[in-house]
Specification:
The chain is mainly alpha-helical. The chain contains 36 helices and six strands. This is DYW domain-containing protein.
């Protein structure tokens, strides 16, 4: 708690303490202001020169003049080359310091980010019986970060009769806002007799700052009702509120208001509008504004790059970064976090490595946020060793950093290592959050540690006060399903405090496929189709379960239903990065410039795989066609095309990394195991559920995914 400020006030013993000295009575005729020492002060550029001028003032007797002394203090306190320490020494030599002199020192501490010293000096000032004026309190309010102390200063401003000053009231509102007391800020605003545009902007900004966008927008409408024309700051604050409220309609209205009222679209205002459009999901309008800007600063580029990442347009985000580089702008931490996120989604490990080297080359500080982004990128691109290395080199880690590595190990099928990191996290004193436990439970699932999974699930609420969400229940269902406890998984679903979603029921259906539990599969499928009758993935998985159990009529019936209802399987898409370029493939893709070579490699793959025992799983083909057509369709799946491209584009021994948007089908999974052995390649596939590390004919998932 802040120490109480002194409320007593001693008036000066003589009028001379609040008025110019005898020597300054001639200032109306400007003899002091035109003195050579004063004129030299105007040109002074450093403390060495200042000290020489100060010495000359003392020698000539000029320093005893309060005006002259105030000029010395003002330079020391307010100039970038000044010295507050010297200002304080000078202050002790002034017999009758004026409020201007005191205010200069307080402002100096505030400007140089020494708020405690500003408050302490004010206390000394009051103890000495010096009187603050209306210029004293704005700097004090800016320095104040403690609510109780701020309220005491508010009382002082009232006691000294300056609380009704509009500038003081505006800074007072800002102080209360920064201290988190919107109620107090609102009271000051409501009691103002006259509100300037700055007053409205300050209060609107306070609501926007503390995630109260509805109140901010209501206040803006009230401002319009009182015919108060907003300034740039007001509009920026309103756009911030629109962004937080995701109020696209209001954002467009503000855009029209700016245009109709002839307000200049300066960089700050345009950037705020761009940011608002991005946060409201209207990326096309944001890009339109961006492209029209004659001059763009780094902040503009960062907003637009991040906007494309938020829009899942990762390639465009990377392309925009290249354009930014050509303009001669250097990236900062914000840029790099967005770009690393793009690489994470694309599975672009080589590009991510290049960005890591660029971070080191440009001496960009790797703080907790950027370090976590690097850990996450490496982990989700399948390079868990590099993720661990970055993690170990970080001087500071927060819960998100630990979680990124835990989730990374879990996705890579390294459940026991993930739990080892979790236990280390607990020993370090970092408190896990809800996302951490998603990784922990996934790790237990992949490692088959059912008892440990239950223990961690219970500890969420018992030890950490975290109520399990549907994601946590989904992990538990997946864990039980992997272990073959289908009945227990169904029982857990029935006991959930919320209805199951597609993730939960889909995990159960996948477990039924692995363990051949048709009855439970049909129950799960019925629930899934009630949630989403048009989801082709459910039909496909159920059809595959029937086929695997040789229930051909049932499988055919499912396919016929899909045809009758025009239900299609979600299109599969696979990405592969070669030489820093990400290539995208879909099923049967012929658009690639090296298609002829890719399909030649496919033929070679099929021939060589069959020679060592590979048998295509034709039950994966949904629609009626002859056996040769089914086999041909299977060979053209997107991940096989990506792998074929990787084989013809990389040197022997280089790992092939593929990212797929859907779950890997059984045939592709089987074929990739054979490919890894026949071609002696390590193949890493990241599908919707997890990583598959194929090597020497086996997969890290142990055929459960």
């Amino acid at each position: 708690m802040a120490a109480p400020l002194l409320l007593h006030h001693q008036r000066p013993s003589s009028a001379s303490e609040n008025s110019p000295s005898k020597n300054t009575t001639t200032r109306n005729n400007n003899p002091i202001q035109t003195h050579p020492c004063i004129l030299l002060l105007e040109k002074c550029s450093n403390m060495s020169e200042l000290k020489q001028i100060h010495a000359q003032m003392i020698k000539t007797g000029l320093f005893i003049d309060v005006f002259s002394a105030s000029k010395i203090v003002a330079f020391c306190a307010l100039e970038s080359s000044g010295s507050l320490h010297y200002a304080r020494l000078v202050f002790t030599q002034i017999p009758n310091p004026t409020p201007f002199i005191c205010n200069s020192i307080i402002r100096g501490y505030t400007n140089k980010n020494s708020p405690r010293e500003a408050i302490l000096f004010y206390r000394e000032m009051i103890e000495e019986g010096l009187t603050p004026d209306r210029f004293t309190f704005p700097s004090l309010f800016k320095s104040c970060g403690d609510l109780n102390e701020g309220k005491q200063l508010h009382c002082h401003s009232t006691k000294f009769g300056v609380a009704s000053d509009s500038y003081i009231q505006n800074t007072l509102m800002n102080m209360y806002s920064n201290c988190g007391s919107l109620v107090s800020a609102g009271r000051v605003f409501d009691k103002m007799l006259e509100r300037s545009v700055v007053s409205w902007a300050t209060m609107i900004g306070a609501y926007a700052q503390w995630d109260r966008p509805v109140e901010a927008l209501e206040l803006f409408r009230g401002m319009e009702f009182e015919n108060m024309k907003p300034n740039d700051v007001t509009l920026v604050n309103v756009l911030t509120a629109c962004a937080k409220a995701r109020d696209l309609k209001m954002a467009k209205w503000v855009h029209e208001f700016i245009a109709e009222n002839g307000i200049e679209f300066n960089v700050v205002l345009t950037t705020a509008l761009m940011d608002c459009y991005c946060k409201c999901g209207c990326f096309s309008l944001a890009r339109e504004l961006f492209d029209r800007m004659p001059e763009k600063n780094l902040f503009c580029w960062n907003i637009m790059i991040n906007g494309h990442v938020e829009d899942s347009d990762y390639e465009e985000a990377l392309l925009l970064f290249r354009k930014m580089q050509l303009k001669g702008l250097r990236a900062d931490k914000v840029t790099m976090v967005s770009l690393l996120l793009a690489c994470t989604h694309l599975g672009a490990l080589e590009l991510g490595k290049w960005l890591h080297k660029l971070i080191e080359k440009e001496n960009i500080e790797v703080d907790v946020v950027l370090g976590t982004a690097l850990v996450d990128m490496y982990a989700k691109c399948g390079n868990i060793e590099s993720a661990s290395k970055v993690f170990r080199e970080m001087p500071q880690r927060d819960v998100m950093t630990w979680t990124a590595l835990i989730v990374g190990f879990a996705m890579c099928g390294e459940g026991e290592k993930a739990l080892k990191i979790f236990y280390e996290m607990q020993r370090s004193g970092v408190k896990p959050d809800a996302i951490t436990f998603v990784g922990v439970l996934a790790a237990c699932s992949h490692a088959g540690l059912v008892d440990e999974g239950y223990s961690h699930f219970d500890s969420m609420s018992n030890l950490y006060g975290i109520q399990p969400s549907i994601e946590h229940y989904g992990c538990m269902v997946d864990m039980l399903g992997r272990a073959g406890h289908i009945a227990k998984a169904e029982e857990l679903i029935s006991e959930m405090p919320m209805p199951p979603d597609y993730f939960v029921l889909g995990g159960l259906l996948g477990a039924c496929r692995i363990h051949g539990n048709l009855e439970a599969a049909e129950r799960a499928a019925r629930q899934l189709l009630e949630l989403d009758p048009e989801n082709g993935g459910t039909y496909v998985l159920l059809s595959n379960i029937y086929s695997s159990l040789k229930k051909w009529d049932e499988a055919k019936r499912i396919r016929e239903v899909m045809v009758e209802r025009s239900i299609t399987k979600p299109p599969g898409c696979s990405l592969i990065e070669v030489d820093g370029v990400v290539h995208e493939f879909v099923k049967g893709d012929m658009s690639h410039q090296r298609s002829s070579e890719i399909y030649e490699m496919l033929e070679d793959m099929v021939r060589r795989l069959k020679a060592v025992g590979y048998v295509p799983n034709k039950s994966e083909v949904l629609f009626d066609m002859d056996e040769e057509e089914k086999e041909n369709a299977l060979s053209r799946h997107s991940e096989k095309l990506a792998i074929a491209f990787g084989l013809i584009s990389t040197r022997p021994g280089i790992p092939i990394r593929v990212v797929k948007n859907l779950r890997v089908c059984s045939d592709c999974h089987s074929a990739t195991k054979f490919i890894s052995k026949v071609y002696n390649r390590e193949i890493i596939v990241r599908d919707r559920n997890r990583f598959h590390h194929f090597k020497d004919g086996s997969c890290s998932c142990k055929d459960f995914w």
